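Final report, closing paragraph on structural work. Over the funding period we assembled a curated collection of sequence-structure pairs, and we close with a single example.
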Amino acid sequence: MSDLGAFPNGLEALEDRLRQDLAWLELPAKAWVPPRVVDGRPVVDVVIIGGGMAGLVASGMLKRMGVANHVVLDKAPAGREGPWVTFARMRTLRSPKQLTGPAMGLPALTFRAYFEARYGREAWIALDRAPRETWMEYLVWYRRVLELPVQNGISVDAILPRDDGMLDLICRQGGREETMTTRHIVLATGRDGLGGPFVPPIANGIDRKFWAHTADEIDFSALTGKRVGVIGAGASAMDNAATALEAGVAQLNMFVRRKELPRINKFTGIGSQGVVHGFAGLPDEWKWRFLNYAMGQQTPPPRPSVQRVSSFPQAHLHLESPVIGLEQEGDHVVVRTPKGRYAVDFIVFGTGFKIDLNGRPELAAVAPYIRLWRDRFPTPAGMSNGELEASPDLGEAFEFLETEPGACPALAKIHCFNFPATLSHGKLTGDIPAISEGADRLARGIVRSLFVSDREKHFENLEAFDTPELLGDEWDEDKTGVLPELSSERT
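Its predicted structure, as stored:
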C-alpha cells in the first residue's frame, strides 16, 4: 500500500492515483442524456446554483453518473465560493479532520489525502482540525482535479417556469443579461439559501453604520480601540468576537439569553450511518421531535473558539442578558438588558439565519407555490418552532412540492440542496459529515427523472441499435444441419 506521506511529488502523485482509481471504476460514466435544443439554443440538463462544497460534490456526483451536460454557477470570483475565506472567521473547521466530506467514497479525493500529499504524514498526525484557508485550498483542488464545470461571476436573477416543463434562468455576468434554459435546477446555496441573515426587530431603529451581521463583510480594523457588543454566543458569534478582539477593540461585551453556554452537541452523540440514511424514513412527527429537541438544546461553540475569546481581559460574557432594547445616542448605541445598560460603538449580531422565500427575488415566480411543512403538518403541542414550520416540504430527491397539485409542476425540477432541507432529509446538505451521501441521493433522483422523461428517445435508441454480437461465421455450415433421428430400436 502506498504511503501518501512518502510521495516524492506530492499532489502530482496523488492525482495520478486518483486518475487510476477512476479508470478502474470506469468513472465518470459515459454521457447518456439525449441533447435538447429550444429557441435555437442548447438546453442544459442541470444547472447548479452555488459553487461551494455542496455545489461541487453535487456536480461531481452528476458527472460520475454520466450527466455531463451540466454547469455550476457562482457569483463569487474563483476561489472565494462559500464562506471559508469570506465571512467564516474561525481559525479551523469545527468538524473533525478525518471526516471524508465530499470525497464520494474515493480515498484519494479526501482532505486527508490532499493534506498528506502536500505536507506529509507527520503534519497530518500533528494537525488538530483543518485550517479554514487550507480547506478552501482543498476545495479549489477538488474542483480542478475533477474538472468540474464551474462558471464564476454569474448571478441568477430569476427562475422562470416554462410551458414545456423546463425552466429559464435569467443570469447576469458583469452588466450583461443572458437566458439559460435547463431541465433541472439544484439550489446549492448554503445556510441562507432560502432566506438570509436573521436580525431581530430591535435593530430597526438603529443606523446601519452601527451594526452588522456575522455573515456581512466587516472591517475589523476600523474597530480598533472601540467598544463592541456581540449578540449571541454560538460558533459564529464567538469567532467574530475573537476577530474583533484580535483587531484591538478596547472592550467587548457578549450578550447571551441563556443561564450558561450550551456544552453538549447532541447530534454528534447520535451520529451514525443510521441517522444519515434513516432520518428521511422517520414518520413526520419523529423528524420534528428530533430536530426541535436538538435545536432547543443548541449546539455549543467549539472549545477553541471560546478560549480564543476568553484569553482577552477586555472580553466580558453577560449570561441571562437578552437584549431588550437598543438606543442610539449620538456616536454610540446603548444596549439594554435586564441586568443593565452598556454603551457600545458597534454591534455584531450573531443571531443566525432565517428561512424566508419572499426574501429571495430569484424565487419570486415559484415561491408562492412551494409547500412548507406548516402547510400540511400540524405543529405538535408544545413544540412550536418557526424555523421548522417555514422549512420546505421536499420529495425524495430534495425537490420542492406544490401546495396545490398542478399549480406549478416545474417545482419538481427544482432541488433544494441546502440547509433548509434538514427537516425533510436530515443533515445531508449543509455539513461536511454526510455531504457525499446527500449528493448521491440528489444525483440518483435527477438521473431517474431525466431517464423517465426521455423514455421515448431511449426506446427509439433501443429499437435502432443494430451492432451485431454475432457475425454469422461463428459456426461451420456443415455443422448446422439437422441431427439424424435416433433409432427407437436398440443395436
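Residues 206 and 261 are 28 Å apart (CA to CA). The longest helix spans residues 435-453. We thank the funder for supporting this effort.
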